[in-house]
Specification:
Blueprint: E1 8-12, H1 22-39, E2 43-46, H2 60-70, E3 75-82, H3 88-101, E4 106-111, H4 118-123, H5 135-146, E5 167-171, H6 174-183, E6 187-189, H7 198-208, E7 220-228, H8 232-238, H9 240-251, H10 270-279, E8 284-286, H11 288-302, E9 306-310, H12 316-330
Parallel strand pairs: 1-2, 1-9, 2-3, 3-4, 4-5, 5-6, 6-7, 7-8, 7-9
Helix pairs in contact: 1-2, 1-12, 2-3, 3-5, 6-7, 9-10, 11-12
């Protein structure tokens, strides 16, 4: 049974809601990170996405640098950097710089997907023909740049070399789980949008895990969407923003993060509702205690070593309040 000592962390995509601009979204994320640090969250991770009008975290390392200057203890990281969009050397230099600014606080989570559409993939100068198939080689190259410099090594990450910034692999399928196991890296699984593959991926990871210099035993984070409020009714109202977000994703519609609504039935078809609710079935909405109960159940079912929450809440104050309520319940304050 998961204990309340199980670490609690958060994922943020710096959402740009209706009525807000990117600068405000980034300031709201900074305030969220500060509140999360005070509330006892272990990690604050940002996700890289491009060409999405409701996400302001495209320049992930830049945002992390700013938030690092505004916090003091919470771990900061990427959830994740979409490695095929970048040269591994540049990623090593960026996160080596972050580690130099904020020693012992930086995580480097890596994803294989582009985090955008194919036209933007081309704009990022990514080789679209690889389709992420060179991801394992890119991870190995990156690890080499962050390891101590070897004699005769001509190319070094400065800063970065020897800093051993901990790497994480992000997964929404068994592919990344298998790779994380072989590489001996911790796994963060995206249960917040890919629950169908969750248990198979975690089982694959644990059964194939090989110890490494970074990690002696398997370590799994599960990430889920969560919304807490004073009452379950209020939380479910706030969570209609999440429902609309995934409805729009299913339709291929790019919109600013929508405000909550009283009645979703006016916005979607029954088939859409079934699809969205199935995809979001691990989401936890309710009072702080109700969210805690569901998160503990998830941790028990998966054997997760850490729980991470993501929140699609339109109102920045309500988003901060939600995280504080969840933390207070989680740590039984």
């Amino acid at each position: 049974m998961a204990r309340h000592e199980t670490p609690l962390s958060l994922l943020d995509l710096a959402p740009i809601g209706e009525g807000f601009v990117a600068g405000e979204a980034l300031e709201n994320s900074t305030r969220l990170a500060q509140a999360a640090e005070k509330a006892g969250f272990k990690r604050y991770w940002l996700a890289e996405h491009h060409n999405l009008i409701d996400i302001a975290s495209a320049a992930t390392s830049v945002v992390l640098s700013h938030i690092g200057a505004k916090t003091s203890t919470i771990r900061l990281g990427s959830g994740g950097i979409m490695l095929p969009n970048h040269a591994p050397l540049m990623v090593a230099e960026q996160f080596g710089t972050l580690e130099s600014f904020y020693p012992g606080r930086i995580d480097l989570g890596l994803g294989r997907a582009p985090g955008t559409d194919m036209a933007t993939v081309k704009a990022l100068r990514r080789d679209v023909r690889s389709n992420g198939m060179d991801f394992p080689e890119m991870v190995e190259e990156l690890r080499g740049y962050l390891a101590p410099t070897q004699r005769g090594q001509r190319i070094q990450a400065i800063p970065g070399a020897g800093l051993k910034v901990p790497l994480w692999l992000l997964g929404s399928s068994t592919y990344s789980a298998q790779l994380a196991a072989v590489q001996g890296l911790p796994l963060a699984f995206a249960s917040h949008f890919a629950p169908d593959a969750m248990q198979a991926a975690i089982d694959t990871y644990r059964s194939h895990f090989q110890p490494s210099d970074q990690l002696e035993a398997p370590y799994v984070i599960v990430c889920v969407n969560a919304v807490a409020a004073e009452t379950q009714r209020e939380a479910e109202y706030l969570a209609t923003t999440e429902l609309q977000k995934f409805m729009n994703l299913g339709r291929g519609v790019d919109k600013l993060l929508p405000k909550p609504v009283e009645d979703m039935s006016q916005l979607w078809h029954r088939i859409e509702e079934r699809q969205v609710r199935h995809q979001l079935r691990e989401s936890a909405w309710g009072t702080g205690e109700q969210v805690r109960t569901k998160l503990l159940d998830l941790a028990e079912r998966t054997g997760a070593d850490e729980v991470m929450i993501n929140s699609w809440i339109h109102d920045p104050e309500a988003r901060i309040d939600s995280h504080e309520r969840i933390a207070n319940a989680w740590f039984q304050r």
